[in-house]
From TrEMBL:
Membrane topology: Multi-pass membrane protein
Keywords, in A-Z order: Cell membrane, Membrane, Protein transport, Translocation, Transmembrane, Transmembrane helix, Transport
Residues that span the membrane, as ranges: 6-24, 58-77
Swiss-Prot/TrEMBL GO biological process terms: protein secretion
Protein name as catalogued: Protein-export membrane protein SecG
Family: Belongs to the SecG family.
Subcellular location: Cell membrane; Membrane
InterPro entries: SecG (IPR004692)
GO terms for MF: protein-transporting ATPase activity
UniProt GO cellular component terms: plasma membrane
Presence of the UniProt keyword Cell membrane in the record: yes
Length: 83
């Protein structure tokens, strides 16, 4: 079980980086930090609707998987599974 816990921990780290990158790829809605760092300059060059939908879909899938793995690790810790 210790190997399974280690694999889940590694997956959480990888998914954390991936989720961060996916969130940063989203188009800014305006008026926030994205405009302060140049997001407002690219309003006319926005992505297509299909690409934005796919980006949203992947972000939600990765986020749900990330939360499920965090809960699994918490249960491993609570029941002292995997050392």
């Amino acid at each position: 079980m210790a190997v399974l816990k280690l694999v889940i921990q590694i997956l959480v780290v990888v998914l954390s980086f991936l989720l961060t990158l996916l969130i940063l790829m989203h188009k800014g809605k305006g008026g926030g930090l994205s405009d302060m760092f140049g997001g407002g300059l690219t309003q006319n060059a926005g992505s297509s609707g299909v690409a934005e939908k796919n980006l949203n879909r992947w972000t939600v899938i990765i986020a749900v998987l990330w939360v499920a793995l965090i809960i699994t690790l918490d249960l491993f810790t609570k029941f002292n599974i995997g050392g």
